[in-house]
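A quick aside before the break. I want you to see a complete sequence-to-structure record at least once, exactly as it would be stored in a machine-readable document. Don't worry about memorizing anything.
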Amino acid sequence: MAGKNPGSFQAFRDLVQLLLGNTVIPAHAAVRLIKGPRPNVYVLGGYQGPTDPVELNDGRFLRVTMTLFWVSTKDGDRVKVETSNFQYQMDKLGDRWICRYDYIREAPDQHPSTHLHVRGSLTEDCLSGDFPLERVHFPTNRVSIEAVIRLLIEQFKVTSNTPEEIWRPLLAETEAAFMQIAHKSLSGPAT
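That is the input. The structure line, written in tokens, reads:
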């Protein structure tokens, strides 16, 4: 995807809107692209801003936040993801979140750059002290928006706007393209 012009960022936003709109969000819900903190950086998020969640068909919410930038490669200019955050939550404010996938291209500390947080209670007493489960960074591979949409439909039973024979191939095709170009990082620092 060409990257230097704002149209490339808009095309990315349009793809995310297409995926969400054909699956788990009502017709009035939308993601929005805003200018980021640096030149050639944009942030994708909810309509009111980057951390504003989009409403889901089940009345719950999905916070979709992605910081995008462009870079020149040997194959041409590309839109890249600097950070992404997908949080499934019960309420608009996010005080009652359920799970969250985080991706940070350049992890600033010892935590995995791609990880999952789960908000819940353990049946076994295996964490030391007052360390809650929701603070554990479970390492993962890179998680796509398509994988999150599938999780919402299949595991959390969020109703899809289109039949399975439409949304499954749509998600499979776009996720396959993502997997070919996705940045893959180590689960922790190299040194």
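Two observations worth writing down. Residues 6-121+133-181 form one domain. The chain has one domain: 6-121+133-181. We'll return to this after the break.
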